[in-house]
Amino acid sequence: MGVLRHHIALAVSNILFGISFSVYVSLLQGVISQSQLFVLQLLFPMFIFTPLAMSHRGFFRLSLDDFGSIFIVALLVVFGWWYLLMKGASYTNPIDASTIATIGPIFTLMTSFIVQSRRATKGEILGIIVAIVGVVAILVDRGRMLLGEVGEAYGNALVLCAVVAIAVNTVLITPVLRRCGTVVVMGWYYLIGTVLSMPLIVAELPTISISDFTHSQLAEMGYILLFGSALPMYLLYKSSEHLTAMHNAIYRYIQPIVATIVAVSRGQTIIDRTNIVGAVLIFLGMLCVILSTPRREITHG
Fold first, then answer.
1. What is the pLDDT of residues 209-227, one digit of tens each?
2. To which H or E segment does residue 108 belong?
3. Are 44 and 156 in contact (CB under 8 A)?
4. Which end of the chain has fewer CB atoms at under 10 Å, N or C?
């Protein structure tokens, strides 16, 4: 199948991520605490990927620079993406969260400008501004207090921080993925995240009682642990070894479509004016960026 399989992997990862927004909201609003879910979501993939990574000779032959990059990525993914996303999901709705997530490629682009010391074109700057206005529209419409007050605006602000973390991660980790491989990288950063989170794991793990969950709640938990985090992260990283940041940007728009369908069908929220305005502005901003980016960077990353 050649490169097609990497496109399929990227599409599937975004479909699974899109569904997970609804499941996060369902679990966190009364079933399990954010800290408990964070602990489970960290330990489950660690027990899968770290042993697999250890079977690769490259696991024990990392250069100091690669280990440093993976350490930073572990902080960004585990504490920036997962922790903040789960905390934000407990206050907001799936449609807002997934729509805000589509601005990720904009921050990926901004990070790449800094890393590569490349000057942005006028079209790229315009696109970035339009997309950010789209996110601001969602944040402001949900409430004026973004910090220190629980509510949808606060939750959306946390989701935005999580999106920035995963966007920066995408730029930093791609060269390491191509040198070391997806399994080795994921094995290391799950191990690093587990070690750094040990005090929280020791405190929260004994408080989790599986017997208190209904069958549907156990099914949702199983989805988040396997299909909502471990598998889509693997597929995302694997495709990132072979595709470009622009491919990631385009496929990211699958997430709000899937999240909206799932959330509305489950009666978790409704589509309103803010969702539409925010989504349109972010999409137009990203489209402007794609059309303004030099063709070489679109095709070769």
1. 888 888 888 899 999 999 9
2. helix 104-116
3. no
4. N
Please check whether residue 154 is in contact with residue 140, taking contact to mean a CB–CB distance below 8 angstroms: no
Tokens representing residue 85 in the block: 């996303």
Burial class (CB in 10 A: 0-12, 13-18, 19+), 296: exposed
Residue 64, CB half-sphere, CA atoms under 13 Å: how many?
0
How many alpha carbons fall within 13 Å on the CB side of residue 98? 31
Contact 16, 210 (CB under 8 A): no
The structure tokens listed for 157 are 């602000």
Distances in whole angstroms, Cα of residue 164 to Cα of each of 80, 206, 231: 8, 32, 21
**CB-count burial class (<10 Å; 0-12, 13-18, 19+) for 247:** buried
Name the percent of the chain lying above pLDDT 70: 92
Q: State if pTM tops 0.85.
A: no
DSSP state of 226: I
Q: Give CA–CA dist 34/25, Å, rounded.
A: 10
Q: Which residue has the tokens 């970035």?
A: 128
CA angle, 202 as apex, 216 and 163 as ends, to 5°? 65
* Chain CA centroid to CA 299, Å: 23
